């Protein structure tokens, strides 16, 4: 499992302790997408396309914090922050001459390793993500649940990852074309939810609004009313000439 530049996929891990030792919180980082060789090549020079630019350690704050006062619900859980370096929302399975797109393999390898670390015996497990990582958490939510058949509670938490098609709003065709290009370039159009692809053009099945009702795992959505993507979609107006 490798990043766009061929460097090793990576994650940060803070072990659980006390009553939280058998609880797991997995956070998939975000960082947008790329849809061409040249576009992806630009990402090879930073953390969005390579793991070599990541520090050996990182600060865990907010929902990742080990401070009980700051993070009373999850402070003593096993907390995992997954580096995002594939440009495909952890879904890609393609190889281009200059670019490796192995997001799906990254997710699979990550799950295998965490299961070996003890997640297989989890009492509670949450798959979370933000932005492009949030979309990944939606797409992988039921898969995550299936990996933990003996876990009492498995849920997904999505932070700013509900990217809308909004077909009746301005720019819908442009949004559809862009996300179709994401799926096509990274080779996962045929991996999108079958509950959706059996009913409509598969390229539209990357938009959660078209398949989320079929997700069986409890899923919680967090979206700021000031989220840049949603603001641009909902408040974009057409120019009228006179």
From TrEMBL:
Its main location: secreted. Its EC number is 3.1.1.-. Keywords: Cell wall, Cell wall biogenesis/degradation, Hydrolase, Secreted. GO terms for cellular component: plant-type cell wall. Signal peptide: none annotated. It holds the Pfam family PAE. This is Pectin acetylesterase.
